[in-house]
Amino acid sequence: MTVFFLVVGMEIRREIHEGALSKFDQAILPVLAALGGVVVPALIYLSFNNVAARGQGWAIPTATDIAFAVGVLALLGRSIPANVRVFLLALAIIDDIVAVVIIALFYTSGLDLNGFAVASLGVLIAFGFQWLGLASAFAYILPAFIVWTGLLIAGVHPTLAGVVLGLMTPVRSANPGIVPPVVRVQTALHPWVAYGIMPLFALANAGVNFTGTELTGGAQLVTLGVALALCAGKPIGVIGATWLAVRTGWCRLAPGVSWGGVCLVGLLAGIGFTMSIFIAMLAFTDDKLLNAAKFGVLLGSLISVTLGLGWGAEYAERRRKETEA
User: Does residue 250 form part of some domain?
Assistant: First the structure.
């Protein structure tokens, strides 16, 4: 998962430099939409699970799985406007930023300042290598390991080392005509993450063991809370925050993005899957509650995929007819 977060960090770095997050007026709408998509699912989950033991899972339905959401959108074909994809991608990236902050603040043990000193040393070494002009990715394995170890000692989840290093990756090449490091490394790692790390993580951790476990009482409410928060809370939060931002005049929809497109983005934002399962594993040590949370993630994500594909097909057909007319 550290490599996954490294790719996420580099994607965030690219978007901040030249993409959907590079300008305030471009970034503010997906930021507000993402915040709505974090707050509403959390509130829905807590409305079912307001006791301490189960309440730890409030952040499980707040994250969007970038790979799955964008992949489902791609299945709908070219009739979906490009700016709808950009909106979904920006929202999912901001979701990941929020998820990283949530993990750092709420799912870490007692903080040890010595660990931060070690992590800072790794960061300084990485900057030093960049100053010396070292372009080989292998040279940065040592500072990456130092940062990872430092965060582990500090009590912060060590996978966040990937985000730190990803955000540090240069967006400009030292030699004109050569692909920038952030593009080169992300391109090299993307197939490994998309077709190796993420499927392996899903296969290893998505399974729900029902042996000796009954989804009754508290566990049942965890499943219901997570599933409903994903498939209903996410669309309500995303669409509602977007409508409010546009209605008050703070933001405008991008060219080609209609309210039908916003609804599609809201539905696909309910696909939590990998990131939600990861947060569930941090939130619960009780196997019964963890299994219930995983089942809720799978159920909520499956409903979101079904609703997204159904509405997306209708939206795409409507777009085709408008184009032909």
Answer: yes
The whole-model pTM stands at 0.73
Q: Count the domains in the chain.
A: 1
Q: State the CATH number of the domain containing residue 85.
A: 1.20.1530.10
Q: Is residue 122 part of a domain?
A: no
Contacts 24+ apart (CB under 8 A), 315-323: 315/76, 315/80, 315/260, 315/261, 315/263, 315/264, 316/76, 316/77, 316/79, 316/80, 317/79, 318/260, 319/79, 319/80, 319/81, 320/79, 323/79
The whole-angstrom separation of Cα 304 and Cα 309 is 8
The H-assigned helical ranges of 155-233 are 161-168, 181-192, 198-205, 218-228
Domain, as residue range, for 280? 20-106+218-320
DSSP symbols for 269-314: TT--HHHHHHHHHHH--SHHHHHHHHHHHHHHHHHHHHHHHHHHHH
Ranked by mean pLDDT, the top range of 34-43, 91-100, 151-160 is 34-43
Residue 60 counted as domain residue: yes
CA dihedral sign of residues 166, 170, 175, 178 = positive
The answer to the question of residue 252 being in a domain is yes
Name the more confident of 61 and 163.
61
Q: How far apart are CA 324 and CA 247, in angstroms?
A: 31
